[in-house]
Please model this.
Amino acid sequence: MKNIKSLAIAGLAILILGFNSCSPEFLDRKPTTAIDADRALTSVSNIEGATVGLMMYFATSGYAGRNLPVIGDLITDNLTTSAGNSGHLLDIEMWNISSSLSEVGTFWNGSYQVVSAAAKVVQACNKLRDEASESEKSTLDKCKATALTIKAFAEYILTQYYCLPYAAANSSMPYPVPGPDQMNGIILVPKDRPESSDNAINSSSTLRSASLAETYAHMHEELSDAIALFDASSKDYANSNAAFFPSKCMALTLKARLYLEQSYGDATNRDIFRDSAVSLAKAALADLPSGANAALVGDGQKFLEQYRAFAAPTTEDILTVNFTTSDNLSANSINNMFGSYGCRASSAVTSLFGGSDIRKTIYLSAAQNKELEIFSSCGKYPNENQINNVPVIRVPELYLIMAEASVGKGPDGDYMEGMMKTLGVRDTSINGDYEKLKSSYFKDGTGEDALLKYVLDERRREYTGEGYRWFDLRRTKSTLTHSGKDFRIQFTDYPIYAFAFPIPESETNTGAWKNGLLHQNEAWEANGDSWSIRYVLPSANGSDYSFE
Model:
């Protein structure tokens, strides 16, 4: 993106039109000139610029540039912060959640800003395509595919933080008021009809809360449309920098994620969903973005070096947020979060590494990494007061989807391939020997529960500092425990899958919520506007927990 950011300025101005204001992290990216809304997206070049501008919204520190990779790990058990952290994401770490908490609003508003901006691009592509030349149609198809993919990703984030996990029992067609065993999906913005303002929904909107079944079907449809459009278009934005933009590979990966999640909540279709997830993961591996490689890095020095350069994506990136030295992130930098703000991997993570795992040094302290000139508690974001690319989706996920979706079929086949291509490569002592991997890591046998645990452990080794842990615990209906000196707050066996963030008050105070079509999550209707794990813990499916 570095060599095309100038293209984004006009496009970002276009996308900003329609928003009443912008959160602070957008200000350094906001252009100084405006474009007439009636003429904004009436040329192919403006649409192409708006598509780049869309990715700049996505990249803000309040979204994919910092909060998304940090919060999902800090609210669970992958990350902690030092005693010196007096305010940065501290409420998240302490589980003091309220509908007015800024991080809660950022995920909601940030997602819908991306959703609305993407819908504007899709709408404009549809209007111009019939009169466009063949070359212009290729560009419009790529812009539309890009917008649909990033829109589906933002909707996916909404389902992960504001909905319960997918289940056939709570994904029925729309209902006027949610019942105690039901949960809304999200508010669906049509793929080509933006209705967003600075918050999610305009006051005059007639949109309603969708069911989870509708929500997942909506995301699947958008991703399928994007895949077809990527196939029809040969237009690329940046050649070797393709991983700075959504791709067909990303769309395939997201569909695989959706099917894997649905498999946990639908026993009838479990095997069908899991087979689909494996097939899509393999298809994504066969269609990686230019510059990416299906073979993961197995050399320790190269593994560290790939996180220290921000001029281009690594060979393991499917989508990464690109920052350059011209981006003035200041205290909002993710690097500072792992520097002076004290964010670091928990001992529960660092204890999972074998002696020959090349990843273990990336999670050590700044002092331990001083010889490597890494001044951070996470070598993925190595230097405080600087910036580098932030990974969003990487190649290892495809192998781990294959492994997780195959746990019911035993330790061989796709499970073996997935684990050997990840853990078998990262731990250099394995050296291609699957029997050695099993004897080294499969300590609890090879039953389905044990095989799932091994995958989740490997995801912690691979993805700490990237925000996946929240998704993993909720998807697999796993409980969360905070014990030991790592954590500021202590509890045991908390059913995290029974909790969802509240829809923020910045949204529910708008006029659209007075028409009866939109609803707060029912747990928050019952508990009021604030909630703390120290006082109330949900129980679900007979789960028991103890508060220490």
Summary: The chain has a mean pLDDT of 80. The chain is about 40% helix and 5% strand. The radius of gyration is 22 Å. The first strand starts at residue 79 and ends at 80.
